[in-house]
Amino acid sequence: MRKQVTLVICGLAALILASCSKTAVQKPAPFNPTPPAAPVDSGWSFETTPSFSDEFNYTGTPDTTKWGYDLGGGGWGNQELENYTSSIKNAYVSNGVLHISALNETVGTNLYSSARMVSKNNGWLTYGRVEALAKLPASPKGAWPAIWMLPNDYVYGNWPNSGEIDIMEQVSFDPLNVHFTVHDQAAYGANGHTETTGIPTDTSAFHKYRVDWTPYAIRGYYDDVEIFTYVNQGTGSAAWPFDQKFHLLMNVAIGGGWGGAQGVATNVCPATMQVDYVHFYKMIHK
User: pLDDT per residue over 127-180, tens digit each?
Assistant: First the structure.
C-alpha cells in the first residue's frame, strides 16, 4: 500500500513538473510597439511681454549684450562672396533702426563685406513667436538678405539634421517675392518646405516677418497674414527636429548659389536691410 501511494505521488509530481516545463518554453506573444501619436493642435498662445527684444532706440554699435556676429568668408556653404565682419560699417543703429549693410570692399580674399548678426544670452526659444519689422535692400541682382533661425546645440547632428527656420529670405534678382522655408533631414536646400509670397513694397516699406512655432506646427506670417504652415506629423526628428533651442540670425549675403543665380551686378552694393525691431515671445504651455 505504501508503495502504491509513493507511485501515485511521484506520478503527480512528474505531471506537475511536465506542466511547468511546458509553460517555461512557451514563446511570449509578439511585441508590437505603438508608434508615437502625432501631436494635437492645442491652440497654444504666447506671452504678451517679450522674453528678448531690441527696439534699436539708440545710436551706434548694436547692443553687445543682445547681439554677436558670425565672422569670416569661405562661402558659408553657399558659395557666398562676402566676408562677415563685426565692423560698425556693416552693422550700425541710427534713427531708431538697425542697418545691416553689405559693401563693395576687399576683406581678406573676399571682394565684399557684410554682417551676420546672431542673438545672444536670452535670445533663444524652444517654441514661441518671433517677429521682426524690416525693410529689404533695394539692390540690383546679387543681394540675399535673410532673417532666420538655427539650433543652439544641433541635438540631431549637423545641418540639415537639426533643422533651420527661414522666417524671411529674398533674392534681389526677384525683389518683390519673399520666401518662408523650413529645412530638416527629410527635406532641405532647394527641396525644403517653402512658400513664396509677393510683397510689392518689401524694398520701400517696413513689413512684419513672423513665425509662430509650437509642438504642433511652424506657421509663417507676413504682416500678420498666415502664408505658411508645416505640421509635425509625429514621425521623428528627420522631419521634426524643431523641439530644441533655436536662436535668431540676420544677414545680407552677396552672391551664393541662390542669391547669385542670375549673376552679381557691379553696383549691387551697398545692399542694406533695415530692421525696426525684433521681438521674441515665449509659448504658454498647456
Answer: 999 999 999 999 999 999 999 999 999 999 999 999 999 999 999 999 999 999
The secondary structure of the chain in percent helix, strand, coil, rounded to multiples of 5, reads 10, 40, 50
Cβ atoms of residues 189 and 172 within 8 Å = no
User: 279, 53 in Cβ contact below 8 A?
Assistant: yes
Q: Which residues of 145-183 are buried (b: 16+ CB within 10 A; e: fewer)?
A: bbbbbbbeeeebeebbbbbbbbbbbbbbbebeebbbbbb
pLDDT of residue 38: 81
Contact 278, 136 (CB under 8 A): no
Indicate the pTM of the whole model: 0.88
Per-residue model confidence as pLDDT tens digits over 36-90: 678 899 999 999 999 999 999 999 999 999 999 999 999 999 999 999 999 999 9
Task: Kindly state the DSSP code that residue 23 receives in the 8-state scheme.
Answer: H
Grid coordinates representing 263 are 549673376
Evaluated on CA atoms 50, 196, 251, 273, the torsion sign reads: negative
**Burial of 39 from C-beta contacts in 10 A (0-12 / 13-18 / 19+):** middle
What grid cell was written down for 137? 535692400
User: How many Å apart are CA 215 and CA 40, to the nearest integer?
Assistant: 8
- Burial (CB count within 10 angstroms: exposed 0-12, middle 13-18, buried 19+), residue 18: exposed
Catalytic residues: 164, 169
